[in-house]
Design brief:
heterodimer; A: alpha/beta; TIM Barrel; Rossmann fold; 5-stranded parallel sheet; 26 helices; 8% strand; B: alpha/beta; 14 helices; 8 strands; 13% strand; globular
């Protein structure tokens, strides 16, 4: 039969995104994952490492070792890869603003171990554009950031040829609410911006530019609408092939292949009935393996309990086993592309391609993706898409099993264990990392460090490639914070538009017209009773840049009549309390998704008390386990909202009641 | 907030004059409060703050200009410079509200754009929604700016320059700065509209763009003759770049020069008295309507009464008078 292959295809690289507490603990986890059949590593770094701060910086408080492993200097990197042969391992690093630095530590470590960097293979995510739009671990303004990306590309092409220096990410755009068309368009615009920047640097000879194009890889998302998602990946392949041929004259079709890795969707994972996430993950994975011509090169799957907290090793094992069953038990890898020739698939692909082309033209007409980010256009589009999604969930138009339909459930045995079904990070990790860092500073050669940092600053100013001086810094024992600060001194820092200044679309708001009208009356009436309109501060303390939740709450609160102060991400508890005081708000809402909610919220409450603002009610939202929510209530937090609270109208009604109660007015109760 | 929780105005005024941040914050909350008891206390607070200083000290600067001209970034650069020079700064950042039928809410995003990095005790920012008041600046902005003037060296009121707000800002500030955007039709429209007579200083932002900025600057320089030109003031046009931090010192030079000009010409006190009277009329009209104004004998009569006394005390007397008339006519 046609399409049957005599030989099974080789499966994709199997990874699990992981890292926590310390380099030592993460190394143990990596080696046990590899022993279970994982074929590559995917390193999760903690937020101080991702945003270029040392563990003992005040902004890092509560964040060290939380969402990933803290890497402060080359000895941490050494410990992270203890007994792991760098020349044989394929390592993906989710690292962006500090990508040149973590890559330098990796190269420096290889050199120290006597390994030729030419043997290193792996990926640095290194896509700053989606950080401005979604993930939030940017540091520098767009100009210097794009230059750093170009520097790593220009360097690796020559010295680390098997490395993927950048992974253009549409993944995080979908997490921020992007539609498939938006994902296609913005990812391809980003790739063009990167390639154009490298071309403009003039470091690559025109004849060798095809190799640069070949090294560009992508990191995509796959949601639950798996037929459309599969078509999206076929569309990506078609559009990339065409774009690299037309725009960059890459004649060899092999160099025009759309190479991508995947983490399937986390946005659609639910906290209620979390076991349902397993089938969601399996179906989402189908989208990226089904079509051979558009199959992923590397896959990492989230764990079933991600909406509840950090996964445990067993949860990660389950995610890995899903991949192994798909690759080794099913017959998927025995066939040619099973979707070729389907008119239904072809028509859907065409529809996506046409839509994406229009949006690309639209962005190009605005001067390209960087200009469209600086103007706030792209962010506004994403916030609007996300809002549509939430409204569809609220109205029941978009069905999510266990959330807005079929909520009846027996108690899940999966969450009954003493750990509540999630991983607890070691509370001593932060202190130990700081001690390790301080000991490291004592034992290194200060003169070497100063000279290396001088070289780094000079390179940053002169425009010389940043990599050689960064590798010298790595070998001299420079710390992550020192590297970040040196470049901050030259490039400055950047805050992109928040995208929440979008106009009220009255039709969309009126999804549940009666509720919105009732809410507006409650907000206005409560404001009148208190003498002035209700004013809300939405704050994101700590280093976590996942601002989608905070933005949605801010926009919704504005829609129902609150005056909303939103200061964006990365604020210290002191700055939040100061803003609450200066702005005279009736309530402070905090959003934290990095797992450092206990430390940060406690610090905010403390700062508020010191300003005599103890009476201003504080609410919190994020991935907050029930046990912690109980503790927060005891500390004085008025309400905690988690992913199971999907109904924004209900949250708004509750917020009004919290304010009423704090001011001696009676609660009005749930919306009719 | 119940009556018992409202602060005592005299004590609050004393704390504000000492520069206590928490007092400044509660004072602003009080001035914003529309409950009857709060209005009365607000008047007492303003009267207590209105001394010599209110007519002679500090510098109240209004900043306006079209959306996208980079006002917030420029204000941020201006603040940096003032703070380096050791001057304290209070800011009122005014953003538009959504229409009342759409809930009347507002997103106040200016802090994020104005904010200088770390914690700073010498800088105080309050964001305000304009609350649809006649399309212009909310009535609360006037008393709030006077409160800040009582305890900060420089007070900046920043508004988006659309329609009425540009006229209102001239009724607030000692000095009005118009921030223009190079190569933008807005500025030309603005010049044509005749509102050109309002600003005392023009700053063309984004001067790093080069030629377009110079062109816009010379267009403003050549603009229509002003009917109300003040003799002795040169209405300077300067080139600045908030992002490159250039031209800010020159701009500050113009601010200081204008402040000296107003004081030397004995205009500062008159200007502030006029602004206060204007606000009293506005607030009485807002609370009691044209009918209330008539009850007091009309605008001219109120104006005369305001000339003779502490305006804020007089304002409260006028309020009580109207209220008693309303009550007696029951």
């Amino acid at each position: 039969m046609d399409g049957m292959q005599t030989k099974r295809d080789r499966p994709w690289l199997m990874r699990t995104y992981s890292g926590h507490s310390s380099a030592r603990a993460s190394n143990t986890l990596y080696r046990s994952n590899l022993a279970k059949g994982q074929t590559g590593l995917s390193v999760a770094f903690d937020l101080p490492t991702q945003t270029g701060y040392d563990a003992d910086n005040p902004l890092a408080r509560g964040e060290v070792g939380k969402v990933g492993v803290p890497i402060s200097h080359i000895d941490d990197m050494d410990q992270l890869f203890d007994q792991i042969p760098l020349d044989k391992m394929n390592t993906a690093m989710t690292i962006n603003a500090t990508a040149p630095w973590l890559l330098s530590l990796y190269i420096g470590l290889a050199q120290r171990r006597g390994i030729d960097p030419k043997e290193l293979s792996g990926t640095t995510q290194n896509d700053i554009i989606k950080e401005y739009l979604s993930r939030g671990t940017y540091i520098y303004p767009p100009g210097p950031s794009m230059r750093l990306i170009a520097d790593t590309i220009n360097y690796t092409i020559k010295h680390v040829p098997k490395w993927n220096p950048t992974n253009i990410c549409s993944y995080h755009l979908q997490e921020a609410g992007a539609t498939p068309v938006q994902e296609l368009a913005y990812a391809l615009c980003t790739a063009m911006a990167v390639l154009d920047r490298v071309q403009a640097s003039g470091e690559i000879k025109p004849g060798e530019f095809s190799q640069v194009v070949e090294r560009i890889s992508f990191f995509v998302n796959a949601g639950i609408r798996f037929v459309e998602e599969c078509c999206k990946l076929r569309a990506f392949g078609e559009m990339w092939d065409e774009l690299t041929l037309r725009r960059y004259q890459v004649s060899d079709p092999k160099l025009r292949r759309f190479r991508y890795g995947v983490q399937v969707n986390s946005l659609g994972l639910t906290e209620p009935q979390p076991e349902n996430n397993v089938q969601r993950i399996v179906l989402e994975m189908l989208a990226v393996v089904l079509s051979k011509g558009a199959r992923a090169r590397a896959i990492q799957l989230p764990a079933w309990n991600e909406a509840m907290g950090l996964p445990r090793p067993w949860d990660q094992q389950w995610a890995l086993r899903i991949q192994q069953v798909m690759a080794f038990e099913t017959d998927l890898l025995e066939y040619a592309d099973i979707l070729d020739g389907s008119p239904v698939i072809a028509a859907k692909v065409k529809q996506l391609v046409d839509g994406a082309r229009r949006e690309i033209e639209n962005v190009e007409a605005q001067g390209g993706i960087i200009a469209a980010i600086e103007s706030g256009y792209v962010k506004r589009e994403l916030v609007a898409s996300h809002m549509q999604r939430l409204r569809a969930i609220e109205s029941g138009e978009l069905k999510i099993i266990g959330v807005n339909c079929f909520q009846e459930t027996a108690e899940s045995p999966l969450t009954l264990g003493s750990d509540g079904g999630i991983m607890k990070t070691d509370p001593a990790a932060e202190r130990e990392q700081i001690e390790r860092l301080q000991a490291h500073r004592q034992k290194r050669n200060d003169a070497d460090v100063r000279a290396a940092l001088q070289g780094l600053g000079d390179a940053a100013r002169s425009g010389e490639n940043i990599m050689p001086s960064s590798i010298r810094c790595a070998l001299a024992g420079v710390s992550t914070g020192e590297w970040g600060d040196s470049l901050r001194a030259v490039f400055g820092e950047f805050r992109p538009p928040t995208g929440i200044d979008i106009a009220i679309d009255s039709r969309a708001v009126l999804g549940k017209k009666d509720q919105v009208t009732e809410l507006r009356a409650r907000v206005a009436g409560t404001g009148a009773a208190l003498g002035r309109p209700l004013k809300l501060l939405v704050g994101k303390p700590g280093l976590d840049g996942h601002s989608n939740g905070a933005e949605q709450v801010a926009v919704k609160a504005r829609d129902v009549g609150f005056e909303v102060v939103y200061d964006g991400i990365r604020l210290t508890p002191q700055q939040i309390a100061q803003a609450a005081e200066e702005e005279g708000v009736h309530m402070v809402g905090l959003s934290i998704l990095s797992g450092s909610h206990m430390e940060l919220i406690e610090a905010v409450l403390e700062e508020l008390r010191s300003r005599d603002l103890a009476k201003v009610p504080v609410i919190a939202g994020g991935i907050i386990p029930q046990e912690d929510a109980t503790k927060l209530a005891a500390l004085g937090v008025s309400a905690v909202y988690t992913p199971k609270d999907f109904n924004l109208n209900a949250i708004m009604a509750d917020m009004v009641d919290v304010i009423r109660e704090a001011n001696g007015l009676g609660r009005l109760g749930p919306l009719p | 907030m119940t009556q018992a929780q409202l602060p005592d105005p005299e004590q609050l005024a004393a704390r504000i004059l000492r520069g206590e941040r928490s007092a400044v914050a509660s004072g602003l909350n009080l001035l914003d409060n529309k409950l009857a008891g709060a209005r009365q206390r607000s008047a007492h607070l303003l009267a207590a703050l209105a001394g010599e200083r209110a007519l002679n000290d500090g510098h109240l600067i209004g900043v306006t200009g079209p959306p996208g001209a980079g006002k917030s970034s420029l204000v941020s650069a201006m603040i940096r410079q003032w703070r380096l020079a050791g001057r304290t700064v209070g800011v009122l950042a005014v953003d538009p509200s959504s229409r009342p039928e759409l809930g009347g809410g507002a997103l106040l995003g200016d802090r994020i754009r104005i904010k200088n990095a770390a914690h700073d005790e010498g800088l105080f920012i309050r964001s305000l929604a304009n609350r649809n008041q006649l399309g212009g600046v909310a009535t609360e902005v006037w008393p709030m700016s006077w409160l800040l003037l009582a305890c900060f060296d420089v007070v900046v009121v920043e508004t988006v320059g659309v329609g009425q707000t540009e006229i209102d800002i001239a009724e607030i500030g000692d000095t009005v700065l118009y921030v223009a955007q190079p190569a933008s039709g807005d500025t030309i429209q603005y010049l044509k509209s005749g509102i050109i007579e309002i600003p005392d200083i023009f700053a063309v932002n984004k001067s790093d763009l080069g030629a377009p900025a110079h062109k816009t600057a010379s267009e403003i320089g050549r603009s229509a003759p002003r009917s109300d030109r003040r003799d002795g003031w040169d209405y300077p046009v300067c080139l600045v770049s908030a992002t490159m931090n250039t031209g800010i010192q020159q701009l500050h030079g113009h601010f200081d020069r204008h402040r000296v000009f107003l004081a030397d010409a004995r205009l500062l006190g008159k200007l502030r008295t006029r602004h206060q009277s204007g606000w009293v009329l506005r607030v009485l009209k807002e609370e009691f309507g044209t009918f209330g104004i008539e009850l007091l004998g009309g605008y001219a009569e109120i104006g005369r009464r305001l000339e003779e006394a502490n305006q804020f005390e007089e304002c409260e007397r006028l309020r009580q008078h109207i209220i008693s008339r309303f009550k007696s006519s029951d």
